[in-house]
Design brief:
Blueprint (H helix, E strand, L loop, with lengths): L1 H4 L4 H22 L12 E3 L2 E9 L6 E9 L3 E2 L2 E2 L4 H9 L18 E6 L5 H10 L4 E5 L4 H10 L1 H8 L4 E5 L7 E4 L7 E3 L4 E7 L7 H12 L7 E7 L5 H13 L2 E11 L8 E10 L3
Parallel strand pairs: 6-7, 6-11, 7-8, 11-12
Antiparallel strand pairs: 1-2, 2-3, 4-5, 8-9, 9-10, 12-14, 13-14
Helix pairs in contact: 3-4, 4-6, 7-8
The structure holds S-adenosylmethionine.
S-adenosylmethionine binds next to α3.
């Protein structure tokens, strides 16, 4: 299964690896200074950022929700400026096809935390999932430096989120994969933190596999936070950048050894964003085996 999902040009992967890493790092740096190439229905340049409106499909019949995303200048963490990456656009666009509503239907066994997004960035995926599923709670997390940007995007989508989820259902918090035992919230609301004793029914992660440490960190976060229930799902999407194929392969190996299996997998080419060319993105819905 792992071999099937990755390119087979193993020798070339190794010889090209450093070149691609270097090119990608340069592209990421350059995007801080270049205007976005997203097509949007409402793109408004602001003195210190950009607001984009994404029309996200909610069924196969043309219905959409409008999700507004601010990419404020000056917010950086993990050497990245705050931006919406191709795989989060792909994942937001296909969320309605993944059957996730069934995960939140069982009220009796509903986890205290229905949706938890990791490495949320601008929060497009988490905001979309919360609105799409009408989730009574969705917590969008990232490193401390990025959380103000996530919070800004929850705020600009307040009307949509209140209508679909209820007040204060969606929060931004710090969940550092190196210290995954707790989420800390900076919004002044209670509780100010929760521990991983609280499990999540749906984990979401877009473009979070780009470093050699990420496979083991994400496996640990899954062990800490993903509810051990047949309804629990870990939904991922990542770009198939050649430089990262080894990390993706390791992630698959670790997740399978940890007791997860892929329920749904597929690929879609993402729009060019942030200086990347069009990118083939892979999405996977993981669930616990044998539950
Ligand atoms: C490439 S960005 C993807 C952002 C967003 N999911 C998207 O697709 O647009 C990777 C995100 O992972 C976050 N991240 C990296 N290392 C992390 C860590 N140790 N703990 C939590 N978040 C981390 C970064 O801050 C960044 O927001």
């Amino acid at each position: 299964m792992i071999e099937k999902c990755l390119f087979s040009r193993k020798e070339n992967i190794y010889t090209e690896r450093h070149l691609f890493t270097a090119i990608h790092d340069v592209l990421r740096f350059v995007t801080v200074h270049l205007p976005t190439t997203f097509s949007t229905t409402d793109a408004m340049a602001q003195s210190n950022g950009v607001i984009k409106t994404f029309e996200i499909p909610t069924d196969g019949k043309g219905a959409t929700i409008s999700v507004r995303i601010v990419e404020p200048a000056g917010i950086n963490s993990d050497n990245l400026s705050l931006a919406t990456w191709a795989s989060s656009l792909v994942l937001a666009g296909i969320l309605h096809t993944l059957g996730l509503e069934k995960c939140l239907q069982s009220k009796t066994s509903l986890s205290p935390l229905p949706i938890l997004e990791l490495g949320a960035g601008t929060g497009l995926v988490g905001v979309t999932a919360a609105a799409l599923l009408g989730s009574p709670a969705a917590h969008l997390t990232d490193l401390e430096g990025t959380v103000p940007g996530v919070a800004a995007n929850i705020a600009v989508n307040e009307k949509l989120l209140v209508e679909r989820c209820g007040p204060a259902a969606v929060r931004a918090g710090v969940l550092d994969w190196w210290k995954p035992e707790r989420i800390t919230y900076l919004d002044g609301m209670e509780p100010a933190e929760i521990s991983s004793g609280t499990k999540a029914r749906i984990l979401l992660a877009a473009d979070t596999v780009y470093d050699e440490e990420h496979p083991q960190l994400l496996e640990r976060v899954a062990q800490e936070w993903l509810e051990k229930s047949p309804l629990a799902r870990f939904v991922m999407c990542y770009p198939m950048r050649i430089a990262y194929l080894d990390h993706i392969r390791e992630l698959w190996e670790r997740f399978e050894v940890a007791g997860l299996e892929a329920e749904i997998e597929g690929r879609q080419t993402g729009e060019a964003t942030n200086g990347d060319d069009e990118l083939l993105c892979e999405y996977v819905v993981w669930k616990w085996k044998d539950l």
